[in-house]
Amino acid sequence: MANYRGGRINEEVRKEVSDIIRNDVKDPRLNSMISVTQVSVTKDLRYAKVYVSIFDNNEDKKKENLLALKNSSGFIRRELGHRMNLRYTPEILFELDKSIDRGMHIDSLLNKIKEK
């Protein structure tokens, strides 16, 4: 039964962080659509690496949104601690998830091959 604990914690943290970003963070720099794609919490529950996908065409705006998320990580950690009953509230580390961009690039390459 202990094998599933890590996955359950990761998924619950992902849901809560996504809800906090969507509803509670009032930073005006967060003007793009942000999706939490994956969360990886360490076994000792000290750190949580949160992978976010930012939907914006401008790279500068993506970096600005990621910086705003990193600056609000203390607030998100506090809210997460209030919502979840864990021994330790993990420190939030935000990472930009580029898997959607890579998938779109591969799809465009496949379409070019298909046209030839």
TrEMBL record:
* Entry GO MF terms: ribosomal small subunit binding
What keywords are assigned to this protein? Cytoplasm, Ribosome biogenesis
Q: What is its main location?
A: cytoplasm
User: Which GO terms of the cellular component aspect does the record hold?
Assistant: cytosol
Q: Which InterPro entries match?
A: KH_dom-like_a/b, RbfA, RbfA_dom_sf, Ribosome-bd_factorA_CS
Q: Where in the cell is it found?
A: Cytoplasm
Q: What biological process terms from GO does the record include?
A: maturation of SSU-rRNA
Any Pfam family hit: RBFA
Query: What does the record give as the function of this protein?
Result: One of several proteins that assist in the late maturation steps of the functional core of the 30S ribosomal subunit. Associates with free 30S ribosomal subunits (but not with 30S subunits that are part of 70S ribosomes or polysomes). Required for efficient processing of 16S rRNA. May interact with the 5'-terminal helix region of 16S rRNA.
> Matching HAMAP family, A to Z?
RbfA
Assembly and interaction partners: Monomer. Binds 30S ribosomal subunits, but not 50S ribosomal subunits or 70S ribosomes.
**Similarity section:** Belongs to the RbfA family.
The name under which this protein is listed is: Ribosome-binding factor A
